[in-house]
Amino acid sequence: MPPNKPANPLRQRPIQQVVDEGPYPVEAYDFIQQGLSFSVKKIHGGNIDPDANRHVTGQQLCHGLREYALAQWGMLARIVLRRWNITSTLDFGRIVFTLIEAGHMQKTDDDTLEDFRSVFDFRGAMESDYRIPLRIHAKS
Length: 140
What we know:
Elements: H1 15-21, H2 26-44, H3 58-73, H4 77-83, H5 89-101, H6 122-128
């Protein structure tokens, strides 16, 4: 799923229309788009060549979204996502495919919603697997 490069910009539906038609708030769609950019950069590096393949799989995106959420909110990540009706990796996929259908993301022929099903245990991955990063500052 390459980020934010619509196949046909003339057919792109406004995000607010997408939000009005579904169970997720605008913040959830923003999170997915930001998390996709985070995941692409993590997997493919800072390559900004527009012709480069920057595809990530559904599983890679789920893991990247988890990492992004934990970096943003730490132990509150699951609570924030639950407030936006995101309680499983399948919810990530539903939002992604809604954004694809609305022209805000792209997919390959191999990408399916099923790629997002049960990628990890949401509660465990957002809570018990989280470790507070330690920052060691060297004395000058």
